């Protein structure tokens, strides 16, 4: 894993690379005193969401003042850009049926001024009740206007063979991964889930995953509760498991009752994995060494279909598959390669080249981490307004172009 000192040293660099992500820095980076106050803040805010007794208009005005005052001078989040006085005025007294306020949506971005986006939806209804804020952020991030609709599901069935290995000689690409997110119909997102919900959801998902018949996908569910720290650390270091202690998620109230109801399912060779109740209810992942995108996608499609045959997912007619973070809505697909491009990545305009190709660049251990040994995580940036297959193609075509640039440099 990247060391804390390296992470700190390259902080401004990481932030510019991950300008639009939700972020995954760890508590390792913070002094003890701050950790304590963060813990207190978390306990307090969890209580507040549950009780609903907070003075929302006051909190919203304080949030606005923080984002636009000296503390927020360097803040470049989409939250800061679109949380206007008018939005506050129109929404300060609104609540979803489950009790989420506008402040619950923005809490994380108010604490984490380095966030690229800074908002999360505590439940599906938040996307419509607080559309004044979410629609603007969604349009800015995905280029998806309020009049647009997510196209019908097209995972790319029958077309995986079109995606020939991107780097057959293995000169540049180390590994390929495609993930998507799914929410279980009938359950809100993390901040509004109760302890009993986590137990019900975990049991339901475990049962459905362990009944999958496909030989390649068959595997075991490992709950986080009871997992040794060594096993957990190894799974994280090997890129299979989510990290713990993400301050963006913590301040979004997404880590209540942790580690209850959280866990990972994987097949024997860890090429098909499912994360349970981390940021989203489910993250379905297919990955393998090398650059055979078609094979990775084919496995993902089989996995998604096997699970959805047993567990119903929630899908919105306009926004597609619903996720906690607005950057993941729609197709929810992030297709990525771990790739080394020594010449192109040394160029000053590397970030701009990737932007133009609609590619997102991250470090080797995911969001807010840095490149190690010149290896980057390069993926499609857009997820909403395009089909699942188009999202994979966005990465595929862009990375193909980057390899051409590398070879001609
Ligand atoms: N192509 C890849 N090969 C191997 N590991 C990968 C690849 N892409 C991502 N990973 C690993 O997957 C893990 C999760 O990454 P990360 O959290 O950035 O993305 P994510 O799962 O798409 O979720 P989010 O976008 O919500 O952060 C990290 O360990 C990362 O290194």
From TrEMBL:
<keyword id="KW-0418">Kinase</keyword>
<dbReference type="InterPro" id="IPR014746">
    <property type="entry name" value="Gln_synth/guanido_kin_cat_dom"/>
</dbReference>
<dbReference type="Pfam" id="PF02807">
    <property type="entry name" value="ATP-gua_PtransN"/>
</dbReference>
<feature type="binding site">
    <location>
        <begin position="175"/>
        <end position="179"/>
    </location>
    <ligand>
        <name>ATP</name>
    </ligand>
</feature>
<dbReference type="Pfam" id="PF00217">
    <property type="entry name" value="ATP-gua_Ptrans"/>
</dbReference>
<feature type="binding site">
    <location>
        <begin position="334"/>
        <end position="338"/>
    </location>
    <ligand>
        <name>ATP</name>
    </ligand>
</feature>
<feature type="binding site">
    <location>
        <begin position="362"/>
        <end position="367"/>
    </location>
    <ligand>
        <name>ATP</name>
    </ligand>
</feature>
<feature type="binding site">
    <location>
        <position position="239"/>
    </location>
    <ligand>
        <name>ATP</name>
    </ligand>
</feature>
<protein>
    <recommendedName>
        <fullName>arginine kinase</fullName>
        <ecNumber>2.7.3.3</ecNumber>
    </recommendedName>
</protein>
<keyword id="KW-1133">Transmembrane helix</keyword>
<dbReference type="GO" id="GO:0004111">
    <property type="term" value="F:creatine kinase activity"/>
</dbReference>
<comment type="similarity">
    <text>Belongs to the ATP:guanido phosphotransferase family.</text>
</comment>
<keyword id="KW-0547">Nucleotide-binding</keyword>
<dbReference type="GO" id="GO:0005524">
    <property type="term" value="F:ATP binding"/>
</dbReference>
<feature type="domain" description="Phosphagen kinase C-terminal">
    <location>
        <begin position="172"/>
        <end position="409"/>
    </location>
</feature>
<dbReference type="InterPro" id="IPR000749">
    <property type="entry name" value="ATP-guanido_PTrfase"/>
</dbReference>
<feature type="domain" description="Phosphagen kinase N-terminal">
    <location>
        <begin position="61"/>
        <end position="143"/>
    </location>
</feature>
<dbReference type="GO" id="GO:0046314">
    <property type="term" value="P:phosphocreatine biosynthetic process"/>
</dbReference>
<keyword id="KW-0067">ATP-binding</keyword>
<keyword id="KW-0808">Transferase</keyword>
<keyword id="KW-0472">Membrane</keyword>
<dbReference type="InterPro" id="IPR036802">
    <property type="entry name" value="ATP-guanido_PTrfase_N_sf"/>
</dbReference>
<feature type="transmembrane region" description="Helical">
    <location>
        <begin position="12"/>
        <end position="30"/>
    </location>
</feature>
<feature type="binding site">
    <location>
        <position position="283"/>
    </location>
    <ligand>
        <name>ATP</name>
    </ligand>
</feature>
<dbReference type="GO" id="GO:0004054">
    <property type="term" value="F:arginine kinase activity"/>
</dbReference>
<dbReference type="InterPro" id="IPR022413">
    <property type="entry name" value="ATP-guanido_PTrfase_N"/>
</dbReference>
<keyword id="KW-0812">Transmembrane</keyword>
<dbReference type="GO" id="GO:0005615">
    <property type="term" value="C:extracellular space"/>
</dbReference>
<dbReference type="InterPro" id="IPR022414">
    <property type="entry name" value="ATP-guanido_PTrfase_cat"/>
</dbReference>
């Amino acid at each position: 894993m990247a060391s804390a000192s390296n992470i700190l040293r390259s902080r401004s660099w990481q932030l510019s690379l991950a300008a639009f992500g939700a972020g995954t820095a760890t508590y390792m980076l913070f002094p003890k005193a701050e950790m304590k106050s963060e813990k207190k803040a978390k306990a307090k805010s969890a209580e507040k969401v549950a009780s609903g007794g907070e003075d929302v208009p006051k909190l919203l005005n304080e949030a606005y003042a923080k984002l636009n005052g000296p503390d927020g001078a360097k803040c470049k989040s989409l939250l800061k850009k679109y949380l206007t006085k008018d939005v506050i005025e129109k929404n300060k007294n609104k609540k979803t049926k489950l009790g989420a306020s506008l402040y619950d949506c923005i809490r994380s971005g108010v604490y984490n001024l380095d966030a690229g986006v800074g908002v999360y939806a505590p439940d599906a209804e938040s996307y419509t009740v607080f559309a004044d804020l979410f629609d603007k952020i969604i349009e800015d991030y995905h280029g998806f206007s309020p009049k647009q609709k997510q196209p019908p599901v097209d995972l790319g069935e029958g077309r995986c063979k079109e995606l020939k290995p991107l780097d057959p000689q293995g000169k540049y690409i180390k590994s390929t991964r495609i993930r998507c997110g799914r929410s279980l119909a009938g359950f809100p997102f993390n901040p509004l889930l109760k302890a009993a919900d986590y137990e019900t959801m975990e049991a339901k998902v475990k049962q459905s995953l362990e009944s999958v018949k496909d030989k390649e996908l068959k595997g075991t569910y490992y709950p986080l509760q009871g997992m040794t720290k060594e096993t957990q650390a190894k799974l994280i270091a090997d890129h299979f498991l989510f990290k713990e202690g993400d301050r963006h998620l913590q301040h979004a109230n997404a880590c209540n009752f942790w580690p209850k109801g959280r866990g990972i399912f994987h097949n024997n060779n860890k090429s098909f994995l499912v994360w349970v109740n981390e940021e989203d209810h489910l993250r379905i992942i297919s990955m393998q060494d090398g650059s055979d995108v078609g094979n990775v996608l084919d496995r993902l499609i089989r996995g998604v279909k096997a699970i959805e045959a047993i567990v119903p997912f929630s899908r919105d007619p306009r926004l597609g598959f619903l996720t906690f973070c607005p950057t993941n809505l729609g197709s929810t697909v992030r297709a990525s390669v771990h790739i080394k491009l020594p010449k192109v990545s040394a160029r000053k305009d590397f970030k701009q080249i990737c932007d133009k190709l609609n590619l997102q660049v991250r470090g080797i251990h995911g969001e807010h981490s840095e490149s190690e040994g010149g290896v980057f995580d390069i993926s499609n940036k857009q997820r909403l307004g395009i089909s699942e297959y188009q999202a994979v193609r966005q990465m595929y075509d862009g990375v193909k172009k980057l390899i051409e640039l590398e070879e001609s440099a």
